[in-house]
Amino acid sequence: MTVVAPDRGGNPMTRAAYRFIPHSIRHQPMGGVIYDLACMACPETSGPQVDQDTAQLWALRHTGRHPEHNLYRRTITDIAQVTREG
Ligand SMILES: [Zn+2]
After folding, report:
1. CA 71 / ligand 1 centre spacing (Å)
2. Angle subtended at Cα 46 by Cα 81 and Cα 48, rounded to the nearest 5 degrees
3. Residues with CB in 5 Å of ion ligand 1
4. Which of 1, 5, 38, 49 has the fewest beta carbons closer than 10 A?
């Protein structure tokens, strides 16, 4: 993904001028990915897991024990790095 961010320049006494410098944002693999599922019916969570299957297996087992607990908030966290392209 590439976007442009304003960079102030020009003469500050009379006017502000902006030029646009492209930046990109990408997943930074060194931080890995963290998966965390939270039951919407009670306070229980999978806790942060580096393995997606571990987090999802927790949810399947939780619903197995509590059939009415079948909605989960999934939080997937990673590290992103913004790089100036210009
Ligand atoms: Zn629950």
Report:
1. 8
2. 25
3. 39, 41-42, 44, 69
4. 1
Whether 9 has a pLDDT exceeding 70, the answer reads: no
Euclidean distance between CA atoms 77 and 64, whole angstroms? 26
The more confidently predicted of residues 16 and 4 is 16
* Pair 37, 73: CB distance under 8 Å: yes
75 alpha carbon – ligand 1 mean position (Å): 16
Question: What are the distances in angstroms from CA 82 to CA 28, 38, 58?
Answer: 9, 29, 33
d(CA 76, CA 32): 11
Q: From ligand 1's centre to the CA of 83, what distance in Å? A: 41
Rg (the chain; Cα; Å): 22
